[in-house]
Batch of 2 targets.
Target 1
Amino acid sequence: FALSDLPLLARSLAAEAGKAHYRVSGSPALYLSSAPPAQGPFDAVLMLAASTEGRADVAIYAGPGADYASTLALSVSLHRCGCSLSLLDSSKDGLRRLSRSARIVAFGGGWAPAAADALGESALAAVRSFVRKGGGFLGICAGAYLASSVVLWEGKRSSGALSLFPGAAVGPDASLAPWPRFALARVKLEGPFASLAPLERSVFYWGGPSFESLPRSASAPLRYLPSGRPAAVCLPFGKGRVFLFGPHPEFDLTSNADGLAWPESAGLRDPEPDADLLSAALSFLKEK
């Protein structure tokens, strides 16, 4: 990712900001810091500052530990799915008000330990309570590690922060891409995704988990090929629902529709858009 991508990002977000689903705070809607972020590999931090009238469909975590490229791609992709959006930082007040301000909370890519440390136990408990009482949780890559009871990262076992999924998140998968490299992973759709096409496709992969020890209440709508290991998992949690992705369906590698020239600028292209995966995940999370 390079600073030369910023004009593209600005144009994309300016176009999105003009639509009716949310209004963007500030003009322009971009906040740039030239200091390298502690939680990510990039030389700049670009955040989308969004607010919404009333209760948002999705609140996206954008605090410490969140990768800003994933946050941006997720914001644009969810907006294109018709969602009203708000952004969360690690402040306890915002998370305590979560049940009144959003229907779904989303944690995208980044670094799960940094997010857990920034949030602290009381804020993490607020997220668990939100889901248990009927909210939805969408976790992608780092967000999936954060949500799992057990994390196996490069063979080292640790406890997850949220325990919304009682199994294990295991990664990165060197057969897909040795960390910290990225690649396109071949996956197969089944279960809740069986009505989508194509049933076999490529999805952007960057260090995300596969899932082990699924409870009987969980299903695996996405599996890595050729291993067959679960690449996504969905399940109930109390009165709420949880959907976790190992790979990154929020990145659109068919064009720059997600507002990012990267990772296409690194030579990675995908002929199949994956917005339908996010849309199907949202449908699952909204069901009661």
Target 2
Amino acid sequence: MDNAQTEHCADGCSVSTKRSAIPYLHILAAEIWLACWTLCSRRQLRRLSLVCKRFRRICLPLLFRHQTIETRFVPLKESNWVERLHSLHRAAVRLDSLRDSPHVGWVHSWNFGARKFLLPSETVVPHIGLIAPTHARLLNTFSTTLSLYHNLRSLDLWELIIDAPFRQTFSELRRLENLAFYSCDIVARNGFVMSLRSFTISAWAPISTAAEVLQEPLRIVAPEALHTLHLRAPDEIPSLLTAFGRAQFPHLVVLSWGHLSDLDIFLGFLAHCPALEVLKITTFHPDIIISLPRYTLSPDTIPVLRDLTVCEEMLGFFPFNRPIATVTILKDPPRPIPILPPLVSWEYLTPAVLNDLLTASVPLLSLSIDKIVPTLELLTSIASLFPQLQHLSIHLRVRKRRTHCHLGRRPPRRVSVDERYPVLRDADAFNDIPEDDLSDVEDSPPIARVRVPKELEASSSRSLQPDILSWICNGAAPLPQGIQVLRLIWNQHFSPAREHAVIAMLSYRYPHLRELEMERLILWARKGALWRKSDTDSYLEVVL
């Protein structure tokens, strides 16, 4: 379409011109635009949705696709209870609005966890009782409207009671593929059996269901279509296995077993999973290690296993003649174990243990080791045994100095009574939202340029932890040349100067390196010539 436009010349006169508008929306297919916009942040999508109606029609489904309401398990006190009350109220109003809107069909994913709060005393906060009805409203609205989300693919539920009406709702979610229960109390043991791609049941503490109910089979998911199964609720595992019986799992590829207590049952289950590629065993009963030498794994069982996560003591049981290219070694077995296997130490990983991985049918590409004190011998052995390694992750166990703490008597805390009485009106629920939730401000990030130092100076920290970064950067503990991801996970803070020096030296020594973690939950990732620090706008360019 031709658009008439007016251009202003330098002398102030205006000239009317006719210029063809670029048909940018039709240059690329809508699928390409959609793929690009899925990479946008929610703030960027919100800004795009204001540009024109066409952008709005495409952006809105992306904004509604994933819904999350999660009340964090935090104690309420005088300083935060009003804020949390308003947050609960906004969530309830949002649920009501979504129920009545035409956008409910755009929701593909729900993560819902209306966890209970630890409430302060009414003598301190007289009106804390406002929390309970607002919390109940939120729970009731979600449970009664869940069936409206007819395009729902993924559902994560936290600390809810799954009764018969709730289970009946599942029968109406015909497109549901992924279902996860986190510390949910499943009181209805029979009901609609779902055909799912992924099923997770997890609990961090014993659930409140009566013991006689837990002994009943839990019939909730059909085994035939399962691709991913996470069993992380020890109390519920026997009930699920009883319901499965001797069924086959022809499509099961990923299995996570939260607490291994019976090898016969476990090995019998594995025999029904011919396509299993990923196996994770997080905890086990101490008797498992004692009885393990009496068992062997049949060559026909899980023949295509490629990713293994087990404790050090079970490492040699699985690899033989299987294509295991990814291994995670856990170092926190339950205690006490009456008989310690040879080569096992709670702090260190003996390099000889890694020899078991050489019996696999393919080279090792990824190795993760959990909670150890690293040694120069171990790092050297890893590079020697696994020259094709691309991913190395080590969770460092912190060795602390002994300190003597003398606490004097503290004066009693002065208790003040919070007399506030918030008024909750649905029409005003979104009138006072924190500024950060609305702001579209995005500053242009600065880029730091760092030259490669000749060597990394020794750490000035007084920690008892070995200076593993200096070993690696200065060549005392060389890594495989093809290393792409290096993660050293520990609770130690580094100055920006030391961070930058480490990145510069490792970039120079290992040109394929693209991800680096030096502090817990802080990841540096390389794109092209720039390194970016996760969840920040810190950028770094290495200059030779």
